C-alpha cells in the first residue's frame, strides 16, 4: 500500500521534481483538446522564439496530399494557421517530394561511377537539381506565406503601420481584417516582392484589389529596413513527409537561426533546464576545451583521418579515440561530462552506444555528428519518423548537428573544417547556428552537400 501511494510529487529531490514536471508536459490530456492548457503552454515559449509546424494533409488514398497546413506559434500572440494548396502549381509539393527521392536514388548510382569525370558531372547535375528544388520550396510552395517563418518583429514602426493599414484595408473592402496576420505580413516586409503581395491579395479576395495592393506595397516599402534587422529563433516542427527536405537552406532562412524539434512539448521541456540544470551548456555555453572526439572509428576513412588527426590531437583539452571503436562508457562519460562531442566517421556512430542507455542519460554535451544520414529519420507505415537524433533529444542534449542524407567524405570534410574552425575561433558568445549556415558555402557542391547539415534542439553559443 505504501508503494502505491508514492508519486514523483512527494520527492523534494531536484532531479525527481524535474522528472515530475517533464511528466506533466508530455502526458496526454484528459480531453481531446484542452484549450486552457494549450494557451498556458503558448505563454511558456521562450521570448523571441517562433515555432512553425508544417504538416502535409493526407489524401483519401492515404498517400501524401498536396496541401500543407502551416501553424505559427509565438508567445503572447494567438496561433495563426494557414492552408497552403499546391495541387494547382506547376510543381506541387508531392512532385517536389518525388524529385527529392529521385535525387537521393541517383546519388547512389553516381557514387558508384569509376570514371572521375563522369562522377563529377553526375554530382554537379544533382547539385543543380537540389538547388532548384530548394528554390521551389520557397518561391512556389510557400510563396507569400514564407513571412510566417519570420521571427517576431518588435519594432514599434510595425505596430503603428499595422494599425494604420488595418483601418485602410477595412475601408478598401476587406471585411475580415486580422491584426495578427497583418502584423506577421508587415514583419516580413523585407521578403515581400510585388508578385508576392499580389498573391496575398488574390488569396484574400479584396473587393478593391488594386487599392489594397497599393496600400500594402507602400506599407512594406516603409518597413523594409526595420524588419530586415529583426532577431530571434525559429523552431521547425515537420511531419514525417516534410522532415526529409532541407527547409533551412531556402533563401529566406539562410541567415536566420533555425533548429528542428519533434513537438511543442520538447521546446517546453528545454525551458525546465534553466531551473533544474542551470550548469548545462544550453544555459552557460560551450567550453571548447571540454571536448571528446571520435575520428574514423571504422579505420576505413584514411583521407578523413589524415585531415583531422593532428588538428584534434593538438587542440587544448581535447580527448578522444582515433582509428578504433570507442567503448560505450567513454561515450556516456563524454555526453554527460563534456561540453562538446564530435563524431567524424560513418553514420551517427549509433552502434557504439546502446539506445536504451542513451535515453536514460542526462546529456550536457552539444553533439556534432558529421557522418552520412546522421540525423535522418526512418519512416515506417503510418508512424512518424524515428532515429538516433530523437534519442539524443530525449536524453536532454541541447543541440544535435548532423546530416539529413548520405554525403561524400571529402566534401563533408570541407564543411566540417570550415564549421569547426570558424565557430571555435570566433570567441566567447559565438552562436553555433550562424556558422552552421555560413559553412554551407565551403563544399564545392553547395546544395547536395552544403544543404545536408541541420540542427535539432535549441541555439547554443561558446562560453
From TrEMBL:
One of its GO terms (cellular component) is centrosome. It catalyses: All bonds known to be hydrolyzed by this endopeptidase have arginine in P1 and an acidic residue in P4. P6 is often occupied by an acidic residue or by a hydroxy-amino-acid residue, the phosphorylation of which enhances cleavage. Residues 288-383 form the Peptidase C50 domain. Keywords: Chromosome partition, Hydrolase. One of its GO terms (biological process) is meiotic chromosome separation. The keyword Hydrolase applies. Coiled coil: none annotated. PROSITE patterns: SEPARIN. GO terms for molecular function: cysteine-type endopeptidase activity. Pfam families: Separin_C. This is separase. It comes from Xenopus laevis.
Amino acid at each position: 500500500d505504501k508503494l502505491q501511494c508514492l508519486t514523483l510529487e512527494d520527492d523534494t529531490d531536484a532531479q525527481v521534481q524535474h522528472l515530475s514536471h517533464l511528466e506533466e508536459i508530455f502526458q496526454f490530456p484528459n480531453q481531446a483538446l484542452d484549450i486552457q492548457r494549450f494557451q498556458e503552454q503558448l505563454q511558456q515559449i521562450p521570448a523571441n522564439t517562433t515555432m512553425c509546424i508544417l504538416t502535409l494533409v493526407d489524401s483519401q488514398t492515404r498517400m501524401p496530399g498536396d496541401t500543407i497546413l502551416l501553424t505559427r506559434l509565438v508567445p503572447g500572440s494567438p496561433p495563426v494557421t494557414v492552408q497552403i494548396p499546391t495541387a494547382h502549381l506547376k510543381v506541387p509539393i508531392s512532385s517536389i517530394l518525388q524529385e527529392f527521392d529521385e535525387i537521393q536514388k541517383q546519388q547512389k548510382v553516381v557514387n558508384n561511377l569509376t570514371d572521375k569525370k563522369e562522377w563529377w558531372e553526375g554530382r554537379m547535375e544533382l547539385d543543380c537539381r537540389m538547388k532548384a528544388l530548394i528554390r521551389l520550396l520557397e518561391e512556389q510552395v510557400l510563396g507569400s506565406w514564407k513571412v510566417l517563418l519570420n521571427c517576431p518583429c518588435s519594432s514599434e514602426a510595425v505596430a503603428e503601420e499595422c494599425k494604420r493599414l488595418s483601418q485602410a484595408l477595412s475601408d478598401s473592402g476587406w471585411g475580415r481584417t486580422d491584426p495578427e496576420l497583418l502584423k506577421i505580413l508587415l514583419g516580413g516586409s523585407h521578403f515581400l516582392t510585388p508578385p508576392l503581395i499580389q498573391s496575398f491579395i488574390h488569396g484574400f479576395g479584396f473587393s478593391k484589389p488594386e487599392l489594397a495592393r497599393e496600400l500594402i506595397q507602400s506599407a512594406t516599402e516603409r518597413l523594409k529596413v526595420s524588419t530586415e534587422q529583426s532577431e530571434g529563433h525559429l523552431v521547425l516542427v515537420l511531419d514525417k513527409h516534410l522532415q526529409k527536405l532541407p527547409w533551412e537552406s531556402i533563401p529566406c532562412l539562410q541567415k536566420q537561426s533555425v533548429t528542428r524539434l519533434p513537438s511543442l512539448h520538447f521546446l517546453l521541456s528545454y525551458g525546465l533546464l534553466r531551473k533544474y540544470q542551470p550548469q548545462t551548456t544550453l544555459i552557460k555555453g560551450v567550453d571548447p576545451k571540454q571536448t571528446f572526439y571520435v575520428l574514423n572509428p571504422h579505420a576505413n576513412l584514411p583521407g578523413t583521418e589524415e585531415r583531422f588527426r593532428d588538428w584534434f590531437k593538438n587542440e587544448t583539452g581535447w580527448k578522444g579515440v582515433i582509428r578504433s571503436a570507442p567503448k560505450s562508457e567513454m561515450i556516456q562519460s563524454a555526453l554527460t561530462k563534456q561540453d562538446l562531442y564530435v563524431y567524424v566517421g560513418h553514420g551517427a556512430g549509433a552502434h557504439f552506444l546502446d539506445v536504451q542507455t542513451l535515453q536514460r542519460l542526462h546529456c550536457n554535451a552539444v553533439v556534432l555528428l558529421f557522418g552520412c544520414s546522421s540525423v535522418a529519420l526512418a519512416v515506417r507505415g503510418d508512424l512518424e519518423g524515428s532515429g538516433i537524433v530523437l534519442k539524443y533529444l530525449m536524453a536532454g542534449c541541447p543541440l544535435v548537428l548532423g546530416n539529413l542524407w548520405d554525403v561524400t567524405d571529402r566534401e563533408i570534410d570541407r564543411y566540417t573544417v570550415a564549421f569547426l574552425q570558424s565557430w571555435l575561433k570566433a570567441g566567447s558568445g559565438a552562436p553555433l547556428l550562424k556558422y552552421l549556415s555560413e559553412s554551407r558555402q565551403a563544399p564545392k557542391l553547395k546544395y547536395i552537400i552544403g544543404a545536408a547539415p541541420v540542427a535539432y534542439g535549441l541555439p547554443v553559443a561558446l562560453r
